[in-house]
Amino acid sequence: MESLSQLFYLHGIGYEYTKYTGEHVVFSDATRSAALSCCGVDVTDHAQIAHLNISLDANKWLQLVPDCSLVCAEQPAVKVRIDKRMLGQQCTVSFAQLDLPSITHQLADLQCSGNYLFNGVTYLELIFPLPALPTGYHDAHINVADLTAGSQLWVTPKYSFQVTDNKHSGLSIQLYSLKNNAALGIGDFADLLALTAQAASHKLDYILLNPLHLLFSEQPERASPYSPNNRALLNPLYISIDLCDDSINNPHITEYLQSSYASDFKKRTQQPQYINYSAVSEFKYAAFNLLYQHFCMYGSEHRKQCFRDFCQQHGATLATLKVTDNDFAYYLQWQAYVQLKLCQTTAREQGMSIGLINDLAVGCAGDGSEFINQQSLFTDSAYVGAPPDPWAEHGQNWGLPALNPIKLSDNNFSYYRSLIRTNMENVGGLRIDHVMAIRRLWWCFEHQQQQDGCYVYYPFEHLLAVLTIESHLNQCIVIGEDLGVVPPEVKAALADKAIFSNSLFYFEKDYQGEFLRPQSFAAQSLLMVANHDVPPFFGWWQGGDLTLKLKYQLIDEQQLIQLRVERDIEKQRLLRFLSGCAAHTLFLHSTASEVYQALMLGLAAAPARLFTIQLDDLDEQTLPVNIPGTDQEYPNWRRVLTHSCEQILTNHSAFLSAINAIRTN
What we know:
This protein is an alpha/beta fold and 665 residues long. Among the domains are: 2-59, no CATH class; 64-156, Immunoglobulins (Immunoglobulin-like), CATH 2.60.40.
């Protein structure tokens, strides 16, 4: 049992946690064994357990250097591990790609940072100083006597990439929900391009997007951007037909868009409150085929070379697609890439200090191309979720396959590095959904008769280093969505790396349940009233979200009565918060618009460097885009805005100017 306990630890299988009730919970051996079994370990095979313990512990000391070495840019050094009896030898480090001379030191002169006893032999860890190295990943060769080893040096800056220390304001949007100027039933990159110009004119600095990940074209009603097909690829439905060069002088696309079929489609999709993904997908993919055929027949040699260059540059990512027509699928990815890049370039040219902020979902669907292509890195039958909380006493299973923390390091974490890099391309910021995942994730096991789970820990330092390095290589700020139960070491490490935290006003309270004062919010944070998982402010103030829960049988009549009482208490707390911000007279019967504007003007004075305004709230939406805990019951990820972006921002021009005056004061 001692060997199994050691393997639990080495494999990252958690031992305990503190429940939301304050209860100290110790995971059972059966639960921890289930987690190991999902990683392909036979917990009854004592020989395998012993072998794995040596492989994950002692073997690290038998390697001259690890496969990848974390190197602090401010004090660069690599850790070399040797048999103590070799102290009289020299060590030489040479660089494979950098134009730097080899460096040699006597091992006896190096500082010792640790030791390990194995089979009667003492092994030492020595600190080998290096010259200044550029941020990034650099191959190095290390020689001691007749031993030679290679290591990839991960040169990591002290902080993640930063913009100016000024306060910044921006919008939060669900791209699909924008009123489409082309009347094709879904917001697209042309609408985003127009919004960047409008946002810049109102002196906004960024637009926070929903995840733009590839979904399932064969199953268009699978609309959740947080359960995607592939996180390294883009959703073609966001492609604007009018922005494609292949729509120019293309009689076939002109005829198609002016056909009676198109006219009928536009009539059916222009007014409804919810997106009909099946109809939109059918219409747009037919148009995409016409664009692609025109490109194949009439595309200039320059454009075809650009396409080839794109395919070569993104070959590894494109290869993960599981489709029957690769060239067509690659073409769509190219067009999406080009249009997203155009939006970011335009945003920066118009004066937005950050531009677009992308959103990375915490996982991928178990039947998607990302999982299928990288299946060896994932567990068998372990799924990502959340521990019990007041809203889900039995915990939550999100149905996203869990990554094996040991396999994740394969090929120097190439999978994770590529995932972060592709999501930082062509944007000025990246929000990491459920950022606690780089430290630990709650695993759920589907074979249990009743839902069971535990925390499993990941190689935190390496994943954090990837975020930091890639942020500099891509000139991209990083925001960690740290809502919920967050280990203190995660908060401290994110702060140390100057990664922005994510604060939702709804959840930020003191021990008495009162909303925190504006000055309580950390400077290195993104502050917003709500996000996609909670009701928009107008729905919250009017209590429409509670009525909606009753409608979809998420609560009963008695619970509705109790929740309305609790909501009135929350609203009174909000009024007390507002009374401390400015002189005004607001009451429970005040309109949502009056209270919302007072709230936003009060929060605008917070030290938070990123202050986010939801476009949904400016449009006075009452229906949520998503109700957690529902799938088909409520039309999640489909609700569209009532007005165009131009109308919304124009109508709130004075309000946005007032926010800007507070933020720049």
